[in-house]
Amino acid sequence: MGSFKITDIKDGHSFTEPVFIDKQFILLDSGMPFTSKMKSALVEWGFKEVFSDGKESTRDEESLEKVRQIVKTESFESVSIDEVMSGEPNGEQNEKNKVAVEANRKFITTVEECDKKIKEQQESDIEARTKFAEKAYEAGMDYITFVYTRFVTHRELKIGLISEAVDALNTFIKENKKYILGIQPKEDAKFDKNFIVNHSLRSAIFALSIGQTLKMQKTKLIELGVAALLHEIGQIRLPPQLYLTDRKLLPMERALLSTHTTIGYSILQDNDFPISISIGVFEHHERENGMGYPRKLVGDKISLYGKILSVVCSYEAISAPRHYKDAKSTHEAIIELLRNNDKQYDDIVIKALVQSVSLFPIGAYVFLANGKVAQVMDANGDPRTPIVQLIGEKNASGFPLTIQTDNDKLKIVRVLNKSETLDLLKALKK
């Protein structure tokens, strides 16, 4: 593998084979151009040379011009294709740390207060408890928005502060899993340009739930949660037209979008994050069968964090609405992962996800064998028999009746489809 001094690579040139950092991590796929700002960013991050089995060549100007024209015609804010990875900060670099500390304090305080309020409610008052779980979830959305915005404007990521926030989130999930896992993204989230924030929070919640099921040590759980919150950080250095469009991407665009894992890795390393977290972010699109990217790793070559993030990232993407698709039900998402077509995912991680959310995930509406309709409220030892709340029935205290399903008369027959669920929710509002 040959080495190439970054400052000697001509602007706009590409390589005939993939380009690597440190002879191991892919920076660019073959044919992807080096821009002057990309080179400046690499030098700023401390890289002096890159490696490739190919040779330097001129880029395909015609293909790049197609990308530029598409970027111009998309109805999003204008971002130049040549500014990828520039990450120029807009804010003052010397602003005191007080703002970041206050954001952390606000999030942690809100989460702890919500946990306290949930414990104060009667266990049977699911609605009240869910309301406080939703408040904690919204606080998480605000916090991740702050973290990402802070990085864009100040190029600042504080591992200590983010770890403290993840620690609080991990504790909240452990105590209130059945409430937080039942929160679903709103249908209009598909039109939200900040869907990455929602995706990151849900991925972190699922990842921490899996980690708890696998009985990971607290320090490892916090690392996993940090990696989940930041696994898409590389995308904010890319033109939003690449990931906020419903059209088919050109090959060059797909290759450009796939660099977000490498960009994310570089961002975290540049901000002194532990290598274990950075590698998890770097590998969240690797697949067990070697068909992922950026290094096409197989099986045990993928880190544990990478394995978990690949599962939760896919599960969240399947079960959440996007600008280019409607959401599938959480049950459909679980079934799709259980099929594990082409052996893409680690079986142990999939099993841990199913044990966390059950085969009929928390929040789903289901038909029972006795003809009644219920909503799944909590997982059980047997993923086929979760705890459910019967619709329209009350217990002695006047709260919705909660029961344990089984494989006989209280067996779950099927999950309500989207149309049936919407009709049910409308009826319940009357």
Brief summary of the model shown:
Keywords: Hydrolase. By secondary structure, this protein is α+β, with helices and mostly antiparallel strands.
Show the helix and strand layout.
Blueprint: E1 2-5, E2 13-15, E3 19-21, E4 25-28, H1 36-44, E5 49-52, E6 56-58, H2 61-73, H3 98-120, H4 126-154, H5 159-180, H6 195-213, H7 218-230, H8 251-257, H9 260-270, H10 275-282, H11 304-319, H12 330-339, H13 347-357, E7 365-368, E8 373-378, E9 387-394, E10 400-404, E11 412-415, H14 418-429
Antiparallel strand pairs: 1-5, 2-6, 3-4, 3-5, 7-8, 7-11, 8-9, 9-10
In CATH terms, what is the architecture of the largest domain?
A: Orthogonal Bundle
In one word, what is the shape?
elongated
Give me the side-by-side strand order of the main sheet: 10-9-8-7-11
The total of beta strands comes to 11
Average pLDDT reading: 81
What's the alpha carbon Rg, rounded to whole Å?
23 Å
| Termini Cα gap | 68 Å
Main sheet? 5 strands, antiparallel
What is the CATH level 1 assignment of the largest domain?
Mainly Alpha
Q: What are the secondary-structure elements, in order, as H or E?
A: EEEEHEEHHHHHHHHHHHHEEEEEH
What structural category characterises the helix and strand content? alpha+beta
Q: What fraction of the residues are assigned to beta strands by DSSP?
A: 5-15%
Number of helices: 14
**Segments where pLDDT lies below 50 for 5+ residues?**
70-94, 187-193, 321-325
User: If you consult CATH, what is the topology of the largest domain?
Assistant: Hypothetical protein af1432
Secondary structure: helix percent: 40-55%
Domain HD-GYP: 174-369
GO molecular function: hydrolase activity
Protein name: Metal dependent phosphohydrolase
Pfam families: HD_5
